[in-house]
Amino acid sequence: MKRALVTGGAGFIGSHVADALVAAGWEVAVVDNLSTGRREFVPAPAQFYPYDIKSRDTHDLIRQWRPQVIIHHAAQMSVRMSVEDPLFDAQENILGSLNLFQAAVQAGVERIIFASTGGAMYGDEAPVPARETDPAQPECPYGVAKLAVEHYLRVYHREHGVIPISLRYANVYGPRQNALGEAGVVAIFTERFLAGRQPIINGNGLQTRDFVFVGDVVAANMAALNYPRAGIFNIGTGVETDILTIYLKLQEFTGSLLGPAHGPAKPGEQRRSALECSRARELLGWQPWMSLTEGLKRTIAAFRGK
User: Fold this and answer.
1) The dihedral of CA 230, 232, 236, 239: what is its sign?
2) What is the pLDDT along the chain (306 residues), one digit of tens a residue?
3) One domain, residues 153 and 9
4) SS3 164
5) Is 158 in the same domain as 244?
6) Which of 29, 94, 102, 146 could form an S-S bond across to 47 if both were Cys, CB 3.0 to 4.6 Å?
7) Are residues 14 and 39 in the same domain?
8) Among 113, 109, 88, 102, which residue's Cα sits nearest to residue 35?
9) 3-state secondary structure of 228
10) 3-state helix, strand and coil shares in percent for the chain, rounded to the nearest 5
11) Do 83 and 200 share a domain, yes or no?
12) Domain membership of residue 248 as a residue range
């Protein structure tokens, strides 16, 4: 039986990936310090280790357990926090990653699948939708750290033969997403609508994002398990949807009477974002299947079922 270690496997996306691996017959270990993840999200057959990715415990686990694959989702996720404290962001997202990679080399890990970013990778000057060949010009420390890890993976591939696959996610939404702090707008709006509390749109709501359902993101991770070479892939829908549209759809689907309310725009917020994903379709055999309408309805149903 093949072994996969999932970092951040008690979190939003990582726990869904762990579920899919277990269902596909993999032996799975999950590393998550539970700073934002939840223990109950970890699938029962998986081995769970409440370790920080920067720790010696994680390093030793990889060396001793010797997985064939590491799927790396653990991260400091807040763009705002990365701006306020770039050093903390780098410690978590760069140094934590390097701790994993060093252990991976010593354990003979075959491939590392890395949860990178598409939304924070290309910057405001990039075409919309952005391609992987467009210049990566991140405008926040979070995006800089993700790009740095991609470059480190390229070096580990060249020097040690580990196959790296970086998946540059668009705005992922779906069941289990955390609505606290700087979370996804779908989760924040959904939780507020269901609680009868007014969601607030930052600015005029015409800023666009590429919303991709978590189940489609999981499918991309599973497809990456079989890709034989190093690669960087955008994982999104290629479709721009503005925040006001998301608000109105969620209002309708939750049956809320709370109409749009606007607050101040976030300083420096990106105005438009979408990812062109033909490379993933051609090389991974992956494409998104979930429509936005159905994905939002499934998300609401999951939030209602908490």
Assistant:
1) negative
2) 899 999 999 999 999 999 999 999 999 999 999 999 999 999 999 999 999 999 999 999 999 999 999 999 999 888 888 888 999 999 999 999 999 999 999 999 999 999 999 989 998 888 999 999 999 999 889 999 999 999 999 999 999 999 999 999 999 999 999 887 556 899 999 999 999 999 999 999 999 999 999 999 999 999 999 999 999 999 999 999 999 999 999 999 999 999 999 999 887 778 899 999 999 999 999 999 999 999 999 999 999 986
3) yes
4) strand
5) no
6) 29
7) yes
8) 88
9) coil
10) 40, 15, 40
11) no
12) 175-208+240-274+292-304
CATH number, domain of 249, equals 3.90.25.10
What is the rounded CA–CA span in Å between residue 163 and residue 90?
23
Query: Which two three-digit tokens encode residue 273?
Result: 């974002």
Of the listed 49, 142, 169, 227, which one is catalytic?
142
CA atoms of 241 and 237, how far apart (whole Å)? 10
Do 128 and 200 reside in the same domain of the chain? no
Q: Based on the residue annotation, tell me whether 49 is a catalytic residue of this protein.
A: no
Return d(Cα 264, Cα 280) in angstroms, integer: 37
3-state secondary structure of 70: strand
Residues 8 and 69 in one domain: yes
Do 64 and 140 have their domain in common?
Answer: yes
202: number of Cβ within 10 Å: 14
